[in-house]
Amino acid sequence: MSKKNIITPRTLSGFMELPPQEQVLFERIKRTLETTYQMYGFFPIDTPVLEYSEILLAKQAGETEKQVYRFKKGDKDIAMRFDLTVPLAKYAAKNYSALTFPFKRYAIGKVYRGERAQKGRFREFYQADIDIIGDGSLSIVNDAEIPSIIYTIFTDLGLSNFTIRLNNRKVLNGLFEMNGLSENATDIMRIIDKIDKIGVEETKSELIGSGMEENTADTLLELMTYKDTNENILAKLETYTGSNETFDLGCQELKDVVYYIGKFGVPESNYRIDLSIARGLDYYTGTVYETFVDDHPEIGSVCSGGRYDNLAEYYTKKNLPGVGMSIGLTRFFYVLNEYQYLNTKLNAPADVLIIPMTDDMSSAVSISARLRKEGLRTQIYMEKKKFKAKISYANKLSIPYAMFLGEDEIRDDKVTVKNMYTGDQVTVSLDEAITVMQESLAGLEAEAIITKE
Amino acid sequence: MSKKNIITPRTLSGFMELPPQEQVLFERIKRTLETTYQMYGFFPIDTPVLEYSEILLAKQAGETEKQVYRFKKGDKDIAMRFDLTVPLAKYAAKNYSALTFPFKRYAIGKVYRGERAQKGRFREFYQADIDIIGDGSLSIVNDAEIPSIIYTIFTDLGLSNFTIRLNNRKVLNGLFEMNGLSENATDIMRIIDKIDKIGVEETKSELIGSGMEENTADTLLELMTYKDTNENILAKLETYTGSNETFDLGCQELKDVVYYIGKFGVPESNYRIDLSIARGLDYYTGTVYETFVDDHPEIGSVCSGGRYDNLAEYYTKKNLPGVGMSIGLTRFFYVLNEYQYLNTKLNAPADVLIIPMTDDMSSAVSISARLRKEGLRTQIYMEKKKFKAKISYANKLSIPYAMFLGEDEIRDDKVTVKNMYTGDQVTVSLDEAITVMQESLAGLEAEAIITKE
């Protein structure tokens, strides 16, 4: 059994590995997403981390391809998924005839990108996606449901000052067509997408650099940077309608989406038409979303998505339009944690620590079974240590209640319960103790996970 | 946008990819494990799927090494984890000074083994592990907590006829020492471990083949196959005590564990000392467990574990004893599903499908928001289809309630609710409808996920 070599334990760089109490907080956030997705009737779908490279890379080229973890096992050319959309496309195409459409699915899983390692960038990270896939067509009301889900999630997590920015690619494409720019649409979209980062002037120079007339650039930028209520922006767009079909359709879609988002109960302060939102990917064809934490634009969009015409064109001839969004959970958690925005009162692994003061632990064990039946997460400190070490365990793990079981308590059929926050300590019957703890813990559980913003 | 080639969508063999409704059931089982682990105060820990090969393969040799997915990325030699124990060992060693001991952690995650593909064997599968790690020492009462967790999980899932079989490696090692067999202990253990598969006679021949005297083999086998109440087996072991320290210690541990398992509320019918349980791995040093579904011994152990002296000897000189268990969740689900033991009434993605009968869907949308607030998983059928197609959607997804919203309902401020199981349909106020659905769904949610055994 003697060991010659100790290998220094280390973790690959770019791979998040949280301390226990931070992991509790991470799991709470993940659970909030899961629960919300389920409340909206989405199916969970769990596809493999590994796929044939041929499948994963059917579309990709350039940057993404270089980042992919790809290897041979036997004679198979295998790659690790780099997002959850490509596996969904494969899944929908493969199982097309067995699926019922519209097919609503959520997926929360790890994806892999061998990016250059840097602070806040991860090579293994969770994406938390939802998509609604239609068979041939899909109602525009779905495009309004997605923002309502985004709103529910961020509100449940405790954020209030966030804005879902909305746009429609048909509006943009229509504008380009009207100005004879449709051939450069992709390039223009890419330039406009940077407007928040580089500013209006720099965007204008880049547009002109791409071959656009100055007055066209002015017209486009004036419209795209126009800030007003959703109603007024829609009214302004209305004045341009009547000359381009794509534009008119885009305006109608945007109008419908705004109308229904309100019906879903999302307050006007949390969503806003922003005609400069383009989303880089050529994948999107209609509604697009980005979500910003108002006081922290530097974080960038924490939740993005949109409408696409054809999910699985590389794997099937079926036309599968869809709408969806994705939360980069690992990065989102990282940022919240760095900013110390998380509610550390919620990071305990247990609600109560039973501390037996006698050698025989049978009372502690029986009581633990009862407490768990009552919904209290219960741990027993079983080690033979000094009292100080036992109570310090509860402190270090920020467990809200300690329950002492000494000879007196056992003889009198009582328990001593200490509130570790207030220091208050009472010796009462087990039933009373349960009531006290349940009430106080319900208050704690009702607290939001994000406490500042 | 025209596509030249369609790539046939396919999934690597040995990688489970479930249809949507089966995935709902899988997630319910996973959630039951998670919730139970949390009720016992375990921390969630999420380590990367990828690690340095040097770390993962510090101990392994032979079979496992061949199965590992291993590749180079840049100059890094990387491997995919093949279990959750090695990453835990690394984690505990790496974070030793920041951790509070005993350190209780659960992990439910995918692991990878490139085994020969065959029915019911998976190359990517979930393990659901718990471990309690001590710093230098760890109370034996922890060894009794693990079976109580196994009991809670299987009972909550709906199983009742299962048996946790217990043994202690010190009892076996002590017996071998008493018979002058300690040098062959590992070989003997391996032979005995197969007793269920190959029978007593064949085991005896193998023991003799390994160099054991026939009468020693008889003595050992008589004891190991002795079936009786836990109390009587302990009494029988007692008669052998007094001559070997290891044996005596093992008997005392077994006695303590049996005593405390009862205190945890586990009925005698669900756990039993079985002196033939050895567990192949040389890793275990004390208590060992296996769990069998009584009517289906052919499945093998569905949950195994035990006590070990030294979790992280390859990564630290610290002595970290622990006790834990693992459920092979993917295989467990696969078996239950194959045997059609799962409660398909629980496989719906939503509790209620709102079917709007008017063009404007704003009533449906507002009502959906209210239903979700009341805890009802709610979907709206938004597509323009014939009524038959709409109701067929609810049927195909086995959604228990459909709610119709026609002009009449909207005018009268009512909703029509149909119970899709019974066909009963009522037109009532929204509040009444919510009450009706909540009551009936509470009954459904109280049903077990495993319905037969």
Quick overview of this protein structure:
The structure is a homodimer of 453-residue chains. By secondary structure, the first copy, chain A, is of the alpha+beta class.
Largest interface: A-B, 104 and 105 residues
Q: Oligomeric status of the shown chains? A: homodimer
Number of helices of chain A: 16
Question: Radius of gyration of chain A in whole Å, from Cα?
Answer: 27 Å
Apparent shape of chain A: elongated
> Biggest sheet of chain A: strands side by side, in what order?
1-5-6-11-10-9-7-8
Structural class of chain A: alpha+beta
Distance between the termini of chain A: 53 Å
Major beta-sheet overview of chain A: 8 strands, mixed
> Helical residue percent of chain A?
40-55%
Which band does the percent of strand residues of chain A land in? 15-25%
Count of strand segments of chain A = 16
What does this structure look like?
The structure is a homodimer of 453-residue chains. The two termini of chain A are 53 Å apart. Chain A contains 16 helices and 16 strands. The first copy, chain A, has an 8-stranded mixed sheet. In chain A, strands 13-12-14-15-16 form a 5-stranded mixed sheet, sandwiched between helices. The first copy, chain A, has helices at 20-39, 53-56, 63-67, 85-94, 141-157, 169-178, 185-192, 195-209, 214-224, 230-238, 245-263, 329-338, 362-373, 387-396, 407-412, 430-445, and strands at 43-44, 50-52, 70-73, 76-80, 103-112, 124-133, 162-168, 271-273, 284-293, 303-308, 322-328, 352-356, 378-380, 401-405, 415-419, 425-428. In chain A, 40% of the residues lie in helices and 20% in strands. Chains A and B meet through helix 1, strand 1, strand 2, strand 3 and helix 4 of A and helix 1, strand 1, strand 2, strand 3 and helix 4 of B.
